Amino acid sequence: MRGLTQAVEGFFSGFGLPVYGENAVPVGAALPYLTVQAVEPVWDAAVPFHARIWFRSLSDAPGMAVADAIGAAIGPGGAYVPFEGGCAWIYKGRVFAQRMPMERDPGLRCIVLSLVMQAIGE
User: Fold this and answer.
1) How big, in percent rounded to 5, are the helix, strand and coil portions of the chain?
2) Which CATH code for domain 4-121?
3) Distance CA 41, CA 116 (A)
4) Rounded CA Rg of the chain
5) Hey, CA dihedral for 29, 95, 37, 119, is it positive or negative?
6) 28, HSE (Cβ side, Cα atoms, 13 Å)
7) Phi, psi of 115 (to 5 degrees)
8) Are strands 46-56 and 33-36 parallel, antiparallel or unpaired?
9) What is the 8-class DSSP label of residue 57?
10) Can you say whether residue 71 is alpha, beta or left, with left for phi > 0 and alpha for psi between -120 and 50 degrees?
């Protein structure tokens, strides 16, 4: 499905942070930013995936504010994400947002967003 990954990353870029593929964060990228796991579901399946909000703070509040904005945009019915040749629906997972502790660097924070995607495309 051409363009699915770019469309999903485009959706997440609407929250004021740079967005990178999970394994494509540039060396030296400045915090805060979002990473998104790339998945490509078959047309009749819903697949889990995740996004992570990375930031530096002594509080989870900045990351949770971004998580709240993303959650509001997804809403209870999911978010429609069009791409060339199809569309995807993004839904919240059963545990939408959870904090991931960084024991070696307590100032580095990460909020993991559990999501589900269903895509229809060529």
Assistant:
1) 20, 45, 35
2) 3.30.2000.20
3) 10
4) 14
5) negative
6) 0
7) -135, 165
8) antiparallel
9) -
10) alpha
Domain ranges of the chain: 4-121
- What is the distance between the alpha carbons of residues 119 and 92, in angstroms, rounded to a whole number? 15
Tell me the pLDDT tens digit for each residue of 82-101: 998 889 999 999 999 999 98
Residue 2: the pLDDT is 67
The stretch 43-72 carries a mean pLDDT of 94
Nearest to 113 by CA among 31, 12, 43, 40: 12
- Write down the residue that tokens 């967005």 correspond to: 19
Alpha-helical runs (H) found in 1-122? 4-12, 61-74
C-alpha closest to that of 36 among 5, 66, 62, 63:
5
H or E element that contains 98: strand 86-100
